[in-house]
Every structure is written in C-alpha cells, then in structure tokens.
Specification:
By secondary structure, the protein is of the alpha/beta class. 32% of the residues lie in helices and 17% in strands. Strands 1, 2, 3, 4, 5, 6, 7 and 8 form an eight-stranded mixed β-sheet that branches. Strands 9, 10, 11, 12, 13, 14, 15 and 16 form an eight-stranded mixed β-sheet that branches. Helix 2 packs across helix 8 (263-281). The longest helix is centred in the C-terminal third of the chain and has 21 residues, at 452-472. The relative contact order is 0.12.
Amino acid sequence: MMKIKALLPIGLLLIQLQYARANDQEDPIRVFIFAGQSNMVGSDSRVEDVDQYPPYRNVAQPDSQVKFSYCIGRENKLKSDGWVPLQPVNGVVGPELSFAHSLATTLDSRIAIIKVAAGGTHLGGDWNPDDPSGFRMYPLLIQEVKRSLALLDAAKQSWRLEGFMWHQGENDMFNEQYMEAYGENLSRFMHCIRRDLNADKLPFYVGELCTKTIWGMDLRPRMHAISVGQKAAVARDQFASYIPTSQVAVEIGGGVGLHYHYGTLGQLEHGTNYANAYLESIEQSPLRRRSLAKWPFKKGEPIRLIVMAGHRNMEGERSFHQQVLSDSGAQRLLQDRPGIPFRYSLGGGVHQSDAWEPLGLTGYYDTFGPELSFARTLLMNQVDRIAIAKFTHSGSQMIDWTPEGSVATTRNLYPAWIQFIRASIADLKERGHPVELAAVVYHVGENDMSFGPFRKSAPDNLRKLVQSTREDLAMPSLLWIVSQQPPTTSEGLDKIDVVTEIQNIAKSDPAMILLNQLDLPIQEKQLVLNTEGIIHLGVQLGEAYIASEKK
C-alpha cells in the first residue's frame, strides 16, 4: 500500500497519548473515531463490488478482531447498540473497513472504531458544538463515544483514544456564512471534542474534499473555500493533519458523468489514506523504500529523458498489478528495471520518489500506469539510455495545468510541473550526463470530458500547457506525444466536438503527435481504463515515440 504524504505536524510524531483508562493492561485497545457526512458514511458504494479490487479483497467480511460501535444516518438511524465485529452497514463501504485492514497488517494491537456519520449535515449547524441544530450531530457524537467507552470500562478493558478521522464540508459550501467560517468552525469543533472527551492532545485527521467529483468542477470556488478553511484550521493546530483525498478513485455515473460520492474503490482508498497518515505519525509507515543499487550509466553517457504526465489513466487509477496475467511475459512487465532510472510525483504530490528508483511498481494503491509497457516497448526496439520522470494528478482538471490556473489557486499544478522537469534534468546533469529532454507524453484529462464548460475549454488549456512548457524550458521544438481516448458521450456533451478541436491543435503544431484512434480493449467503465487498457495505452505511446525517432 501507498504512503500518503499528509501534512503531519511535529506534535503528532511519537506523541504519548494520555487519555487511557488505567486498568493495568499493557496493550490498551486503540480507539478511533470516524465522523462526518455522506463520504464518511460511504454513500453510493456497494459491498458486492469490493472483491473487484485486488488490494481490498475480503475487507468487507465481518472482522471479530476489531470492535465496532456505530450510529449512522439522519432521520432513520442505524445503530449497533453496543460493540459488534467490524462490518459493512446497510450494504455500503465506509473508510473504516480498509483503515482497520491496513492497521491490522502493520500493527499487533487491538483496534476499536466508533463511527457517527450522517449525509447532508453541516459543521455550521448539525455539528456545531455550541448551538447544534438540524440533526444535532455534535451532542449525538459525544453521547455515542462516551457510551461506547463506558462499555469497555464495564468490561474492564483498557483503551486509549488514538485519533479522530473527520470528513465533512460539502454541505457547508452551500451556505455562505458556513463556508466563510469553516476554518474557525473546524478549530472550535476540534477544541470542543477534546474538551468534552477529556482528551486534550487527541490527533485529528481532516480529510480533503475530493476535487475529482463533478463538484470539483461545477463548484470549484466553493470547494476551494472549504479546503482553505480546513488547511487554516490544521495549520493552527499542533495535533491535526490534513489528509489529501483528491487522488482517490471516483465512480463514473450517468448524465453529468462524475458523481459527488467516491464510490466503492474511492471509499476503500479513502480509508487507506487515513491509515497511512496515522501509521506515519507513529513512525510505522508500511511504505517499502526502493532505490537504485547501482547507477546504470557511465559518467559522460548521454541520456534521453522522457516525461510522462496526465490525469486518471496516466496515473493508472484502476490498473492493479495483481490483475496482470500470470504468464511469464506479462509478469516480467512488473519486474523492476534497474537500467531505467525512474522518478515520480503522483496524485498531486501525495506519493513521491525520494530519488531515482528502478522503473517498476511504486506501491501507489497497488496500481501502475502506462510507463511499464511504454518502457518495455522502447527496449524491445533497441531504444536505450532512457530515464523516465512521471508527474500526475488524477484529481486535477486541465485548467489546473495552465500557468493562469483558476480561482482555486491552491490547485494550480503548473509551477510544480515545471520545477519537476527542471529538477529531473538538473539531477541527471549533476551525475555527469548530457541530457536530452526527448519528449513529453501526455494523456488528455478524462474528467474534463464529462462537464460541458471544462470540455469546451480543454483544447485551449492543452494549447496553453504545451506552449508555456516549451517557453519556460526554452525548448520551442519540444516533442509532445498526446493521447486522447474516446470522450464521454451523452446528450448535450456530444455537441462539444472536443476531438476535432484537439485534432486541429495537433495539425497546427509540427512538434506534436496526437493519438486519438486508440486501439483499446473494451472497457467496463466510462473514461477510466482497466489493467489491460493501461498496458495497451503504454504500448501505443511507445510505438508513437519510436516512430518519432525514425523521422
């Protein structure tokens, strides 16, 4: 599993938590609280889909080793009425399932989870500790936590509050007052929780609102305002962390295309995010560090650097290494290639290499992108002395890659993009190599294809990205290999002929190769390629690069 590079303050590291009931047991139960609204509930996920995703198979089975107490919902609440084995509730997948699974594979400790969540609730109202309104979630939360802990006391089981996982904010952005005050309200909420639970150093893990959803485009300024408030509250709090979630998978729905709930895989990855943030805070990160045992090139040898970039499918959102066929040829695709230095920034920087690694699996949700089959295609055609640098963010839209960005200024990727390329070149030069930036291989933003205004502006945003990158790198003839899969088809969207517009850009650019007649295997999901599709994409990108070399 991956390591999420959450914003972990120093105060969380190796903290000695002091809010356990002393019952003379050496290993008290680690208790975690999960609270928030619909994406904490797990809305629009399906238990029956869990086993489709290899890293999470069997996660939805009841687990008697993890205690679970819950109160979920608004008008009609689902309650455990005490501690039960950890299990799905009402057929949906909450992040607590994969969270507990991740901890169990790393820690030899007893775990308990208390969950109180309800969709469509406000921090400014329902969760307001001073004046709760609506469904009065704050007093309900305190009541349920205290009741659950009292049951442990009655059973003479020692416990320790370890963390509070919070994911909420979507509904506050619809109320101007709540939206503007979200940061202050969140700070007040965390203070009151610690006060009312007598846990003055209780760590909070605040989940980002996922920008990959339709709301990430349609309600961009409001989503941004909530994230600014969240980050401000975390920055003020010694014991709070901000947990990025925009890189998680999001289900593709009908009509507008991208829904505002994560769906099954997204919820599972959502729980992994929380688990890895917690494990990092106690210095138990499960990340396996990879490094080049030996630099593969002699000093003075020229190197061709190829930069691969893009969104969902360049990242490899639904391409799992466990699904690669077991025949020897396919399995060799997954083996490290120490002859190809590889560095990366994935998910908008949440998973980054520390240095050059051998090209191979990165541990990012057990997924991989087209870089593996791309590189194999080059090697099979005697293209050697290459290094690959990969920069992706599956939760971005193409406007985020332009120098101007958007009103959501903190989502602007362009400065980090240019710095990433420059740093890759500089490092190779420092090792004594002449460096040729041979190509940028870019897969057109999938999310943009499902929302009219973004689909309409996608061609111009691509043009800006290509032009600005060449100017800032002082490489006016830098080759771009651009791939575009068939976009979403639905009434209204089909009137925006994004394919022809991008074709026109490529025709007017002598240093651009466009692949938009991709020979991909049939895909189950709209927009998002599966394992087989990602491998095919890499092969076609590799063949396009080889063709460019022969010109």
